[in-house]
Specification:
The complex is a heterodimer of chains A (about 270) and B (about 160). Chain A has about 270 residues and is of the alpha+beta class. Chain A contains four helices and twelve strands. The longest helix of chain A is centred in the first third of the chain and has 36 residues. Classes of the chains: A alpha+beta (about 270), B mainly alpha (about 160).
Chain lengths: ~270, ~160
C-alpha cells in the first residue's frame, strides 16, 4: 500500500512537472508570436514591465549611478581651467555670430512679411528628461518622463538643442520610450539643405553613424553636406537638423548626427503644427 | 523541498542574479564596463545555479528573466527567451550525465555554454530583428568573460561552503 502511494505521488509529481514545462513552452511560443505580430497583449506587457520593473532595477543601481556621477564631476573639475579658456574664446566667437543672427533675424521677418509665409512648423508637446537608458548591446532606446498624460503619443519626433534625437515608440501614462536615430531599425527620410538629394537613412552597424538605405534617383550627396528631415514620411516634421555627411563608401553615405547620444539629459517632444 | 529552495546559498545566487540583471538593463555611459561585467556575470550565475542547485522553479525564474532581458535590451521578445529555453531543455535532458562529471569538467562546460549563449543571442537578434553583430561589443564581452570566469567560480565555490 505504501509502495503504491509512493508510485502515485511520483507519477503525480512528474505529471505536474510535465504540465509546467508545457505551459512554459506554450507561453514562450505565444509571446514570440505576439511579439512578431505586434499584438495588443505584448504592448501592454511591455508597458507594464517598463512601469513597474524598471523603477525597481533603477533603485537597485542607485549606488552605481552616484559613483558614475561622481566620476563625471571629478573629470569636469579636473578640466575646469582648460574648459574656461575654451569657453572664453567661444563667447568671443558667439558675440560676433549673435550680431549677425540679430541682423539676419530682422531681415528674415521682413522677407516673411513680404512673402506672406507661415512661421515655424513645429509645436512643442512636452519637454522631458531622460529617466533610464537601454541602449546597451542591441536596441538604442531611452526612457523619458513624459507620457500619455502629457499628450505624448506614439510616432512623435523627439529633438534637443542640437537636432533630431529620435521618435517615441511606446507610451504609458507617465513615461515613453524613444527609439534613437542610431538604432538599426530606425529609418528616417532626409534631404540635404540644398534640397537636391532625398534619401532614407538608418542606424549604421557601428552604433554611431547613420547609413543611407535608399537614395532617390541615385543622386549621391557630397561629403560635408548638412542633412535635415524631409518631412515626407509624415513622422518627423520637415527641416529638423539631423547631421553632416562624413564619408561615402560603396554607394552608401554615412551621416554623423549632430546630437551627442552619450550626453543627452533633456529632450523635447514635438509635432507638426 | 522549501528548505532546499530557501537555503542561504540559493538566496545569495538569486540576489546576484537580480543585481546583475538590474545593472545590465540600466546603461551607464561613463562606466560601460560595469554593464559588460553584469551581463557576463548574469549568464555565468544562471548556468552555475542550474548545475549545482537545480530546482524546477529555476526554469520559471529563467523564463521571466529571459522575457525581461528581451523587453529591456531588444524591445522584442525572442533572442534571450529562445537561448535560455534551449539551455534549459539541453540541461534538463542531459542532467543525469552532467551530474556525474568532475568539477573541472563542469567548469569547462559552463565556459563553453556561456560563450554559446552569447553568440546565439546575438545571432537570433541579428536574424530576427536586424540588429547587427557589433564586434566591438562582442570583444568586450569575451574579454570580460575570460577575465572574470575563474575568479567568479572561485567566489561561487566560497559561497557554496557557507
Amino acid at each position: 500500500m505504501a509502495l503504491s502511494f509512493k508510485v502515485k505521488a511520483i507519477s503525480r509529481k512528474r505529471f505536474i512537472k510535465n504540465i509546467f514545462l508545457s505551459f512554459i513552452f506554450l507561453s514562450s511560443f505565444l509571446l514570440i508570436l505576439f511579439s512578431k505580430s505586434d499584438y495588443f497583449v505584448i504592448n501592454k506587457f511591455k508597458s507594464i514591465s517598463n512601469t513597474y520593473l524598471h523603477p525597481i532595477t533603477s533603485f537597485v543601481t542607485t549606488p552605481l549611478k552616484v559613483a558614475s556621477n561622481l566620476q563625471t564631476q571629478f573629470y569636469e573639475f579636473r578640466n575646469l581651467k582648460v574648459e574656461n579658456k575654451i569657453l572664453k574664446e567661444e563667447i568671443m566667437r558667439l558675440k560676433k555670430w549673435q550680431a549677425l543672427a540679430i541682423h539676419n533675424s530682422s531681415e528674415n521677418r521682413v522677407l516673411k512679411k513680404l512673402l506672406n509665409a507661415t512661421n515655424n512648423n513645429l509645436s512643442l508637446v512636452k519637454t522631458a528628461s531622460i529617466l533610464t537608458r537601454n541602449d546597451f548591446l542591441y536596441s538604442k532606446m531611452v526612457k523619458i518622463n513624459a507620457g500619455l498624460k502629457d499628450g505624448v503619443i506614439k510616432e512623435m519626433a523627439v529633438i534637443n538643442h542640437r537636432g533630431l534625437v529620435g521618435r517615441t515608440v511606446d507610451t504609458s501614462i507617465n513615461n515613453s520610450k524613444v527609439l534613437l536615430l542610431t538604432d538599426p531599425n530606425s529609418s528616417i527620410s532626409i534631404k540635404t539643405i540644398s534640397n537636391e538629394n532625398h534619401s532614407l537613412v538608418r542606424g549604421a552597424d557601428d552604433g554611431v553613424h547613420l547609413v543611407s538605405a535608399f537614395i532617390k534617383d541615385e543622386k549621391m550627396p557630397k561629403v560635408g553636406d548638412l542633412v535635415v528631415t524631409s518631412g515626407s514620411a509624415q513622422v518627423f516634421p520637415a527641416d529638423i537638423l539631423v547631421g553632416k555627411i562624413v564619408k561615402i563608401i560603396k554607394n552608401n553615405f554615412y551621416v554623423l548626427p549632430f546630437v551627442n547620444f552619450k550626453n543627452i539629459d533633456y529632450v523635447q517632444v514635438v509635432e507638426t503644427k | 523541498m522549501l528548505s532546499k529552495l530557501l537555503s542561504s546559498q540559493i538566496i545569495i545566487y538569486h540576489c546576484i542574479l537580480f543585481f546583475s540583471f538590474s545593472l545590465s538593463v540600466n546603461y551607464f555611459v561613463d562606466l560601460e564596463i560595469v554593464n559588460y561585467l553584469a551581463y557576463v556575470c548574469f549568464h555565468l550565475t544562471l548556468i552555475y545555479l542550474f548545475f549545482y542547485f537545480f530546482h524546477f522553479s529555476h526554469i520559471f525564474v529563467t523564463f521571466l528573466y529571459a522575457i525581461f532581458f528581451d523587453i529591456f535590451l531588444v524591445d522584442s521578445i525572442s533572442p534571450h527567451l529562445i537561448t535560455f529555453l534551449a539551455f534549459v531543455v539541453l540541461f534538463y535532458f542531459t542532467k543525469k550525465y552532467l551530474f556525474n562529471l568532475s568539477s573541472s569538467n563542469v567548469s569547462y562546460i559552463i565556459f563553453i555554454l556561456t560563450l554559446i549563449m552569447f553568440i546565439s543571442e546575438a545571432l537570433i537578434a541579428n536574424l530576427q530583428f536586424n540588429y547587427p553583430i557589433n564586434f566591438e561589443n562582442f570583444l568586450w564581452i569575451f574579454i570580460t568573460f575570460i577575465i572574470i570566469f575563474y575568479p567568479t567560480l572561485l567566489v561561487f565555490s566560497k559561497i557554496d561552503k557557507l
